[in-house]
Each structure stands twice: as structure tokens, then as C-alpha cells.
UniProtKB/TrEMBL annotation:
MF terms in GO: ATP binding; ATP hydrolysis activity; transmembrane transporter activity
Organism of origin: Phytohabitans suffuscus
Gene3D superfamilies: P-loop containing nucleotide triphosphate hydrolases
Keyword presence, rRNA-binding: no
CDD domains in UniProt: ABC_MJ0796_LolCDE_FtsE
A Pfam family matched in the record: ABC_tran
UniProt keyword annotation of Aminoacyl-tRNA synthetase present: no
Protein name from the UniProt record: ABC transporter ATP-binding protein
């Protein structure tokens, strides 16, 4: 069961002298219920690959799929629906709305989509995320790790087919980072959540089931059951 897939994926930015080839014919399948990390040097195409798989950016050539849906063929409104209903995002900068409480932030994507959370599932997510009585606090009243856990809960509560996380621990100390990664890891183990994470941190990658290494726009290696030492 494949949750996301790229087939001969090319991405070219600009033209002429300024042309940059960010992806050079990437083929990859991401299995449902797995936690995949994407690693590689700065500029190797990690963000581009993730954005094109998530429907945030369009490939120049080739195809990208979420489940059976070929997102390269979707209209703008089709893409908006895909991003709203089928994928979740976690960013390095948390991207919480400062005027809303943690709980309101968690529920925001659902309310925008006009959906109500399944009460049992909502309770499970809220319990697992471990914010306790801080659910009524605004982001500015929370630590970085707590803010990122709010962002994780916001992504998880809509039960997306894939969660895309772009350097989710990039702004956190190692202890807060471990809490966020443990939460992501457990959401794979306990709920079968599919996660794709871009990271340059070997310790973060060790939480994944599989690491894909990019260099210069292509996949150059991969590793199953990675360890922090192994991906260094
Ligand atoms: P990574 O996430 O591995 O750092 P990126 O996917 O961000 O790599 O970038 C891959 C290459 O594409 C880099 O050379 C980068 O400068 C270039 N690039 C990324 N986004 C753009 C853009 N919007 N316009 C032009 N070049 C871009
Ligand atoms: P719990 O007590 O719920 O298992 P932890 O945060 O200790 O919470 O761990 C969450 C998940 O992350 C567990 O599945 C654990 O196996 C995994 N995990 C914990 N530490 C690491 C690590 N350093 N590298 C990889 N996976 C880890």
C-alpha cells in the first residue's frame, strides 16, 4: 500500500543562465504506515521533493501521487482540496496562529474544512500530545517543544493520509526535539500514520523506518531501520 509516489520526477527552476535543476528524475515509493526521513546536503532537493509530493509545488516533468491520485494532473481547486483533506503539514517554525489557543489551533484545519473532529479520536490525540491544562494557552505562553506538539496534533487530528514534516526539530533543543519525534514515532506505531520528514539531524532520522539520501537532485542511497551513527 503506497501512500505517496514520485515517478521520474524533474523540477527545474528558472531558465537560461539562472537555471537550477532541483530534481533529476527521482523515482520513489513511500509505503503507508511508515515513517520516512529524507536527508541530504543543503540544496540537494529535499524540500522540493517534499513540496512536489505534497501538492505545494508542481513538477516540471514526471508524476507525483498521493495514494492513487495523480496530483500532477489536478486543477488548482483539486490541489487545494488535496492539501486540505488528505495531507498534513508540520513546519520548522510551527506556524501556529498567535491569537488562537492551542486547542483552537489544533481544530483550525478541521473547522476551515467544515468538518467536526471524531470525539474519540480527538480525545486520543489530545491525550497523546500531552499538553495537559496548557490547551487553553496561546502559543506565546508555550515552549517551543509544546508549540511543535500542538502543530503535530493539528496535523494528526484530521487523519491525513500523509503528514509532511519539514525540519520539525530544527528550532528545538534536543530534549524538546525528542518529545516531538517520540510523538511522531508513536503515531506511526499506534495509529498507522504515514510520515515523511525532511531533516539534517541524524538523531531525528533514527526515529524513522527508512532514510532516503538525496544529493544533487537524485536519490543516492537509502537505509532501513536507521541508527544515528549509521546515517552520519
Ligand atoms: P534542500 O531542501 O535539500 O536544501 P531545495 O529543494 O530547497 O534543497 O533546493 C534544491 C535546489 O533548488 C537548490 O539549488 C535551490 O537553490 C534551488 N531552489 C529551490 N527553490 C527555488 C526557487 N523557488 N527558485 C529557484 N531555485 C530554487
Ligand atoms: P514512550 O514512552 O511512549 O515509548 P518515548 O518518547 O520514549 O515514549 O518514545 C517514543 C517512541 O520513539 C518509541 O516508539 C521509541 O521506541 C522511539 N524512540 C525513542 N527514542 C528513540 C531514539 N533515540 N531513536 C529512535 N527511536 C526512538
Amino acid at each position: 500500500n503506497i501512500a505517496a509516489r514520485a515517478v521520474d520526477a524533474w523540477k527545474v527552476y528558472g531558465s537560461g543562465e539562472a537555471q537550477v535543476i532541483a530534481l533529476r528524475g527521482v523515482d520513489v515509493e513511500l509505503e503507508a504506515g511508515h515513517f520516512t526521513a529524507i536527508m541530504g546536503p543543503s540544496g540537494s532537493g529535499k524540500s522540493t521533493l517534499m513540496h512536489c509530493l505534497a501538492g505545494l509545488d508542481a513538477l516540471t516533468r514526471g508524476q507525483a501521487f498521493i495514494g492513487e491520485t495523480q496530483i500532477t494532473g489536478l486543477s488548482d481547486s483539486g490541489l487545494t482540496k488535496l492539501r486540505r483533506d488528505r495531507v498534513g503539514f508540520i513546519f520548522q517554525q510551527f506556524n501556529l496562529l498567535p491569537t488562537l489557543t492551542a486547542e483552537e489551533n489544533i481544530l483550525l484545519p478541521l473547522s476551515i474544512a467544515g468538518r467536526k473532529p471524531d470525539p474519540d479520536w480527538y480525545k486520543t490525540v489530545i491525550t497523546t500530545v500531552g499538553l495537559g491544562d496548557r490547551l487553553g494557552h496561546r502559543p506565546s505562553q508555550l515552549s517551543g517543544g509544546q508549540q511543535q506538539r500542538v502543530a503535530c496534533a493539528r496535523a494528526l487530528v484530521a487523519k491525513p493520509e500523509v503528514i509532511f514534516a519539514d525540519e520539525p526539530t530544527g528550532n528545538l533543543d534536543s530534549r524538546s526535539g525528542a518529545e516531538v519525534l517520540g510523538f511522531l514515532r508513536n503515531s506511526v506505531r499506534d495509529f498507522g500514520q504515514t510520515i515523511v520528514m525532511v531533516t539534517h539531524d541524524p538523531n531525528a532520522a533514527s526515529y524513522a523506518d527508512r532514510v532516503i539520501f538525496l544529493a544533487d537532485g537524485g536519490i543516492v542511497d537509502e537505509m532501513l531501520e536507521p541508527t544515528a551513527e549509521g546515517v552520519l
